[in-house]
Specification:
It is built from five helices and 30 strands. The protein is mainly beta. Strand 25 and strand 26 form a beta hairpin. The longest helix is centred in the first third of the chain and has 7 residues.
Length: 635
């Protein structure tokens, strides 16, 4: 987005007049070689400056002008040339002309930039055969980015300032001067990066009223032509602020990483939050891929009156001088959400905390929750949401049979209650509409986390195909699908079973699928879904040890449809990989097909969020799928 700073161009006619003849001739009109030699409102015709509305003028001969110039079309020749030529080149058409005669073509840039700095329209010269030539010599605005344009002593963007020292050029000036080379005299405040990787917004304010003394950070953006891979900047950041993260950086099939779309120094400042990007690979092209889009985060945006730093430059409500009735800086993750535990957000701690209106019960509250990682495949939202005037009115919602809404809206619904089956990041949006129509809005990234290792399985044909999750531990598990093999799966590892595989881990206190805090085994399968639509399967190990190694497998148990399973791997609450989304697992068509997914090496103590992942991959077929369950635990 370009700067919203408006430059007033006054008396521009006299500023850019260049005399080529030096004096008038006896006809009384000025001698010219091109339109640039004439005053505004005049064009060069037959060597003399005449009014652009004139068909001849005192010094003109054959006074008709080409249709592509400033002349009218009523001079006796309305015929046009080939549309494709005139439309694409802007060359003048129609009418005879005197060889050597010149005329200005239509200016193609922003009208306010014409004749500012080097910017000018093209000129056409009459050819020897009496027809107009091509439009040539145009100079249009160029956005000032990179050291070459930022320090060439030319007003390349034709905004009236030579080598702007703000916005995209700030990194190339180290003299401490952050003002433009030309003072425009307005009260614009540079609020920094705005989220679409161009110049900053300028917000006009009344400097006499605003006492905001916060000094905003300037965006740290490297040159836009940098290759982040070649520069060794594969770091989950948009270092050159071009709208993509880690372009060209290699990755492994299914690998995920936190990412941020914004200047690196704005990360986790104000409302800005990380998103997630997944490694994209092409089937039968090897497991090495490139990073996909960064999705699900919150990038810098124009500051608004909401008590939050929306543009993430370190200053909330930047120079807006307001007292907002809503607090979008409220931390929804102060108490992190966990799977199977109700998360309650009290909107009365966000809106009208200063009792300016006292209308929480009459305002309309709308809470919107986006989909999580597995919902891409399941096409559902694996959470239950509801609003209520009071906590008592919210009531309990059955985990399996509750209404799966993504939007909850109603008068007085100031409290939001949600239960998640799955981990991950969800975007929550709040909109409060007062009875007089005033609207206040906030947005957050809500994170659902769990300790230790958590494997989540989703598939697109729940209800008609039964797919099962299997997890084994190196040195302990001997087979994938027998109780004696000590793998964790539906046959021996359900959370409510009296016993399970012994992997040497102590029991822990955690929540079961019904939301009850109880002593839980490790490992455990918290959900075994056989026939319910939209229900996942998950296996947990709350307390893995450093250097423990695990393997993940998925079995097609029963059904007759082709299904597409997806595995999400969480280490310490952080999504580390998503396998099966791109490309999809192929060949998963009937029982007892088995997908060997990934080997996981745990790094650090149980609270770590680090793990080393080695996905199983065949460069010829993609993900590794066999037509039967392996007889042993080996790959």
């Amino acid at each position: 987005m370009k700067k919203l700073l408006v430059f007033l161009l006054c008396s521009i006619a006299g500023l850019f007049f260049v005399s080529c003849g030096g004096s008038d001739d006896s006809s009384g009109s000025e001698v010219c070689e091109s339109n640039l030699d004439c005053h505004v409102g005049e064009v060069c015709s037959a060597g003399h400056c005449v009014s652009e509305n004139s068909s001849g003028g005192e010094g003109g001969e054959g006074g008709e002008l080409p249709d592509g110039g400033h002349g009218g079309s009523d001079g006796g020749n309305s015929e046009t040339t080939d549309d494709s030529d005139s439309a694409e080149t802007n060359d003048p058409v129609g009418g005879d002309c005197t060889p050597g005669e010149t005329t200005k073509c239509a200016y193609q840039g922003d009208p306010v930039t014409e004749n500012v700095g080097p910017c000018k329209a093209a000129v056409s010269t009459c050819k020897e055969d009496g027809t107009w030539g091509k439009c040539e010599g145009a100079v249009e605005p160029v956005n000032e980015t990179g050291e070459e344009l930022c320090k060439n002593n030319i007003d390349d963007d034709c905004d009236g300032n030579i080598d702007n020292k703000k916005g995209s050029c700030i990194l190339f000036w180290d003299d401490g001067d952050t003002g433009d080379t030309t003072d425009t005299g307005d009260s614009g405040i540079d609020v920094g990066y705005t989220g679409d990787y161009d110049d900053a917004y300028q917000i006009p304010v009344d400097a006499e009223v605003c006492n905001d003394t916060c000094v905003p950070m300037h965006a740290e953006c490297l040159s836009a032509d940098i290759d982040e891979n070649e520069a060794g900047l594969c770091n989950g950041l948009d270092d050159d602020c071009d709208g993509t993260v880690d372009e060209g950086c290699p990755c492994t099939a299914g690998q995920t990483q936190p990412c941020f779309l914004g200047p690196k120094n704005y990360r986790n400042v104000g409302t800005c939050q990380d998103g997630v990007q997944t490694c994209k690979v092409t089937m039968r092209a090897g497991s090495t891929g490139v990073w996909g889009e960064c999705v699900g985060g919150i990038s810098p945006s124009l500051d608004k009156c909401d008590n939050a730093d929306n543009n993430c430059n370190g200053c909330k409500d930047d120079k807006l001088c307001c007292a907002p009735p809503i607090d979008c800086a409220f931390d929804v993750n102060a108490v992190p959400a966990k799977p199977f535990v109700y998360k309650i957000i009290d909107g009365n701690q966000i809106y009208d905390t200063g009792h300016k209106f006292n209308d929480a019960d009459t305002a309309t509250w709308e809470w919107t929750l986006t989909k999580g990682p597995c919902d891409i495949v399941l096409n559902t939202v694996n959470s239950f949401v509801k609003g209520g005037k009071t906590l008592e009115e919210v009531g309990d919602i059955n985990t399996d049979n509750g209404v799966q809404n993504t939007v909850v809206s109603g008068v007085g619904f100031s409290k939001f209650k949600v239960k998640f089956r799955l981990s991950g990041s969800y975007k929550l949006h709040l909109k409060v509409t007062r009875t007089n129509g005033e609207v206040y809005e906030c947005e957050w990234v809500m994170r659902v986390v769990s300790d230790g290792l958590r494997i989540e399985l989703c598939w697109d044909t729940t209800g008609s195909v039964d797919v099962d999750l299997h997890l084994g531990k190196n040195g302990t598990t001997s087979e994938w699908a027998t109780n004696s093999g000590l793998a964790c799966y539906f046959g021996n590892c359900k959370f409510d079973a009296s016993s399970g595989p012994n992997w040497g881990y102590a029991n822990t206190q955690n929540y079961d699928r019904n939301g009850n805090l109880r002593t839980m085994r490790n490992p455990r399968l918290d959900i075994d879904n056989i026939s319910k639509v939209g229900i996942p399967e998950n296996i947990n190990v709350d307390n893995p040890n450093d250097n423990d190694v695990f393997r993940v497998g998925v079995k097609y148990y029963s059904g007759s449809k082709v299904t597409h399973p997806v595995i999400n791997v969480y280490c310490g609450g952080t999504l580390r990989a998503t396998y099966g989304v791109e490309p999809q697992v192929s060949g998963f068509t009937s029982s007892p097909y088995f997908w060997k997914v990934v080997q996981i090496k745990w790094v650090g103590n149980y609270a770590s969020d680090q793990c080393e992942l080695t996905p199983q991959w065949n460069d010829g077929t993609g993900y590794v799928v066999s037509s039967s369950v392996p007889s042993s635990y080996g790959w």
